[in-house]
Each structure stands twice: as structure tokens, then as C-alpha cells.
Write a structure and sequence with these properties.
Blueprint: H1 23-38, E1 45-49, E2 64-67, H2 73-83, E3 88-94, H3 95-101, H4 103-112, E4 117-122, H5 157-163, E5 168-173, H6 177-189, E6 194-199, H7 211-217, E7 218-220, H8 230-237, E8 243-250, H9 257-260, H10 268-271, H11 276-286
Parallel strand pairs: 1-2, 1-3, 3-4, 4-6, 5-6, 7-8
Antiparallel strand pairs: 5-8
Amino acid sequence: MNKRPTAFDMPQETDVAWCPGCGNFMLQQSVKSALHELGVERKNLVMVSGIGQAAKAPQYMNVNMFNGLHGRSLPAALGIRLSNRNLVVVVESGDGDMYGEGGNHFLHAIRRNANITVIVHNNMVYGLTKGQASPTSQRGMKTPVQVNGVKLEPFNPMAVALALNAPFIARAYAGDIEETKKIIMQAISFRGFSLVDVFQPCVVFNKVNTYQWFKENISYLQDNHDTSDRTAAFRLATEMDTLTLGVLYRNDDRECYEDLIGVGSTPLYQRNPPDEKAFQSMIDAYQ
């Protein structure tokens, strides 16, 4: 896919702290292209992140953003969504931030089913804090902390999300920019909680799950896959011999959290206008 300028691009001289060859660069290209092709306006978009290399992604895009605490991107995203249903809310997070520190929020965000899109940069390692095992690291993988190899079974986000009946579950690979873009477009267009788990090589700290490794261990969904078949999706999610990419499951019938609790379409700031004098006093004090 040719890299085309979008309204979401930062200036070329922007200082980016990702390593050369990092899969984050390609994933960011997919995200920006998806937003561009969907015609999402910047004024209507808020991107939310926590802490980590993946969580820096919105900082390197020309967007409205909220950078929260480690593992706490989802509650912030939920609050933003409930305050203004006219906004497109996209979360970008890493496998440690989302499935480790943020694991409890991940579970309950699925249960609530607010209309937000969650894109997880899954590089199977902690890249910001120098390479210790993450929840998705493979057994046997040696790190500076797990010097004798990881002993635990890796967390399976696809299987967990399916068990909780997440209404949109997809898996992608950052190295396939075009296919990842298409999946992200579907996720953003979906009404409800959409999860896109993206395999993203870390070229410095993960010497196991390399570009070559993914090339040898991923496959794509067959055209006849029924995305409404939850049992078939679960079988694919738990298959370890090959990691299947695509939209594994979608359920368009789940009611969104916003509808369940009766949040109207009028943004919160319009329903509760601030006292103009008090507001001006705050501005004057700040200046």
C-alpha cells in the first residue's frame, strides 16, 4: 500500500521514539489510512492510550487524544464516549498495557459493550521497560527478567473476548498494512465494542516472534468463514499451530451500553452549560 498523506499526519520532523524497523510504524500507517478512507473528521475523533511504546501512537498523529495511566485507557475512553456520543473513540494500547495492567478493565469493557474501537499492538513483550515478558509472551521465551524462560501459558485475548461475548473480534498482522487497514475500517464502522489484536514485531527485545516467524506462523481466514458462528471462532482462537487473521466473530445484535443506560445524543457540555462568568474567571486565572 502506497503511503498517502492524510489529515492525521504529523510533520515529518516529529521526534518519534520507536526503533527503526518497529512494527508500530506500519500499524500506524494502517490506522491513519483507515480513518482517512472512512472520512472520519479530526474534530469528531478522540484517540485514547495508556502507557507504553504502543500507547505513544496517538502522540505521533494529528488528532485529539487522551493519554492516561498504565492500563487505564478503557475507563477514560468509556467516559469520553458517554460524554459525547457523536465522537469516534479509538483506543491504542500494547499487550502489557491492555491485557496485563489493564486486564480487569478489558473484561468489564467487553461486558458493558460501549461503542469504542480497541486496537492492541501485540508484540508479546514489554518494549518500553526493556524486554520483560508480557501476558502474551510464549512459554520458553527468555528475557532479561525471565532468564530461564517464561513458565506461564500466554494470555489468549481472542478466546477471553469470545467467552465474554465481545461483539466484534478480529486479529491482524502489522506487516500486512493493507489487510490491517481493512480490518480496522470494519472495527471502527461497527456499532459496539470492537477488538482488533494486531501482531506487531518488536525488533529489539523480542527475538522469537520476528517478521520471519510471523510469516511462517500466520494464515488468513477462508472466504467461507461464518463470522456469526461463535463456536467456529473459538476454535480458531484456540488453534496454536497457526494464528488465523481476519474478523473471527461479529454479533450485530448486542445492545450498546449508551443505550442501556439511556445516554442521549446531546453532548454533556451542551446539556450542562457552564456558568459563563465562572468559566471566564478560570480562563483569566490561567492566563
